Please model this.
Amino acid sequence: MMLARPRRNRKSASIRALVRETRLGAADLVWPMFVQEGEDSETPIRSMPGQARLGISKLVDRARSAFDLGVRAVALFPALDDRLKDPLGTESANASGLLQRAVRALKNALPDLVVVTDVALDPYSSDGHDGVLVDGRIDNERTLPVLARMAVAQAQAGADIVAPSDMMDGRVQAIREALDAAGHTEVGICSYCCKYASAFYGPFREALDSAPRSGDKRTYQMDPANQRECLREVELDEAEGADWLMVKPGLPYADIIRLVREHSTLPVAAYHVSGEYAMLKAAAAQGWLDYGPCLMESLLCLKRAGADVIFTYAALEAARLLGEA
Ligand code: PBG
Model:
C-alpha cells in the first residue's frame, strides 16, 4: 500500500514556496490613521502602542514612509475637539474641517496614495453615536442626509473611497446618489457591510474619545451571534452600489469573511481592529508572544479566510517585515 505523504510538499522552503496557496503583500494593506489639530503634534494612544494621533504634517510624513514601503492606502479618522461636536455632527460637512484638510494634504503630497475616509457621525457627535440620536433612539432617516453630506465633503477634498461604518439602513444608496449628483462618480464606496457590535473596538474609542455617551451600538451594529444575517447585508449593499464589502472585526469573524467571499464577486476587506492589535502588542510586551510572527500569521489568515484587502494598524510594521521595498 502506497502511503500518502503530504510532508513531501513541505520538505524544503523552496517547495513550500511553490505550493503556497496564500500570499500577503504590502499592497494588500490599508493603514488606518488618526489625525488631530496642531501640524506637528503627536499624541500616543495608550491602548494602541506604536499608534498616535498625528497633526497633518506628521500624518503626511508617516503616510509617505508607508507608501515607500509599498502600503499604498490609508484610512483616516479625525480626533476632534469636544467643542466642535454637536448632536448632528455638523462639523463633518465643513469643507475646511480637520479631516478634509488632511485629505487634501495627503493627496497633494502623495497623489498615488489611496485615501479612504470614514463616514459615520461618531467622531463628530456629542452623543458618541454613529447616527443622529432622537429621544434616545438612533434615527435612521435623519441620519442618511448627514452621511450623504459628509461623504460629498470628503469626495470634494479628494478622497478616493468613502467608507460608511455607521450601519444605518440604506446609507450606501443615499451616499451613492449624493456623490453622483455632485459629480463624484469615480469615488468608490467601501461599505462596512458586516460590522458587528464588538467589544474589540475599545482602544479605537479611546483614541478618538468617541465612546457612546449613553447606551450602546446594538440597534445598528450586528449581533456577534449571527452569521446568516450578513448575507442580507451583502445583498442590500450590492444592490445599493457598494464597490467593496467589509467585514469587521477580523480574525474572530473569519467565518463571516469566508461567507461574504463566497457570496459576492466584489472585493472583500477585513478590518483587523484596534482590540486585535492591542492584544498582540500587550502579549508581546509581556514577553508572552513573539510579535512579528504572530502579526504576520494573523494577517495571512485574514487573506486565507477570503479577504482581498486588510485594514490594519500594523500596516507599516508588516510592510517592514515583508521587506519588499
Ligand atoms: C465607528 C468606527 C469604529 C471603528 C471604526 N469606525 C468604532 C465603533 O463602531 O464604535 C473601530 C475600529 C477599530 O476598533 O479599530 N464609526
Summary: The mean pLDDT is 97. The radius of gyration is 20 Å.
